Structures are given as C-alpha cells and as structure tokens.
C-alpha cells in the first residue's frame, strides 16, 4: 500500500469515527469541541470603532464542523453558546451569561451553530465539499452569509442601526481579511483529515 493510500485510509477512519460513533462519544466529542471554541475565543483583538472584536472562534467553529461533521460539530457550537449563555465564562474576553447573547455579538454566536450545521452537513454528504475548492466555497458561504449575515442583523437590532452600509462597516468588512485567513487555515487543515471520496 502506497503512502497516499495509507493517508486516505487514515482519513477514512477519522471520518467514520467522528460521524458514526454512538451518542455518548458524540457528546464527548462535542464537549471537547465546545472547550476548544472557548479557548479559541480568548484569541481576541478589540477594534476601537466597533463592539465586535476579532476572535479565533470562527476558525474553531468551522474547523470542528469539518473535522466532526453534522452531529458533533453542530453540538460543539450549540454547547459553546448554551453553556456560555448560562454563565460559563468562555465567550471572548472570558465573558459569559445571557447579557452576552443579548448584546451586539449575539447574532454571530447564534450564527456559529447554523454555520457548523451547514458545513458539517455538506462535508458529511457531498464528496465535492471535501475537496479543497468545494470546502473553501462551503466555508465562505457559512462565514460570510450565515455568521456575518446573522451577526449584522442582530447588531442592527441591538444598536438601532438601520443603515446597511454602516452595519457592514461595523460588523462585517473589518473582519474580511482575517476571516479569509481563518477560512484558508481551516480548509487546509480540513483537507488533511477529510477523505477525498
């Protein structure tokens, strides 16, 4: 067996394990994933002109959805948001509680769950989404349409800002370069663990 074939077998085993394990394993994976998102959230760069900081959460959410698939990947984000909303201080800046969910960044947090669901589902069911071009396309849609879309809608509701251009300046455009880097990193790591077929 060639090295390429061995790598593909290894990828297939990871894929099978993360997708086909029993409920207790899925929950354990998701709890680990939620903790990983919480750690990544502490990589935080505040910006003076917006209440939304640059964080490592987006990378963690997208990569876990690739790695763990629909169930454990989505549960990771759900547990992260749920436990953080209940007071566990693992949101960005070691914050927790319902006030964070109800604040300016709440839409992004909810968007994480839906983005993980989308990416996990696509990677689970479609071989094209496991290849680099399809994977990048999936991550772009999940990040910019789902996370940013919900984020700026929520931001507008919380701040009372109704100008789309102002919302884009506050809650989306400043994050595009960093998000593109996070997407490239998540996709590159994802290709290392996803089978091609």
Shape: globular
Lateral strand order in the biggest sheet: 1-2
Order of helices and strands: HHEEHHHHHH
Indicate the CATH architecture: Orthogonal Bundle
Global Rg: 17 Å
Average the pLDDT over all residues and give the rounded result: 94
Summarize the structure.
The chain crosses the membrane at residues 21-43, 49-68, 75-92, 98-123, 135-155, 175-194. The chain has helices at residues 3-20, 23-41, 57-85, 98-102, 106-125, 132-159, 164-171, 176-193; strands spanning 44-45, 54-55. It has 197 residues and is an all-alpha fold.
Question: What brief labels describe this structure?
Answer:
mainly alpha, Arp2/3 complex 21 kDa subunit ARPC3, two-stranded antiparallel ribbon, 2 strands, Biotin transporter, BioY, transport
Q: What's the SSE blueprint?
A:
Elements: H1 3-20, H2 23-41, E1 44-45, E2 54-55, H3 57-85, H4 98-102, H5 106-125, H6 132-159, H7 164-171, H8 176-193
Antiparallel strand pairs: 1-2
What does this structure look like?
The protein is mainly α. It has one domain (3-193): Orthogonal Bundle (Arp2/3 complex 21 kDa subunit ARPC3). The protein is built from eight helices and two strands; from the N terminus they run ααββαααααα. The chain has helices at 3-20, 23-41, 57-85, 98-102, 106-125, 132-159, 164-171, 176-193; strands at residues 44-45, 54-55. A two-stranded antiparallel ribbon has the order 1-2. Strand 1 (44-45) and strand 2 (54-55) form a beta hairpin. Helix 1 (3-20) packs parallel to helix 3 (57-85) and helix 6 (132-159) crosses helix 7. It is globular, with a radius of gyration of 17 Å. The two termini are 18 Å apart. The mean pLDDT is 94.
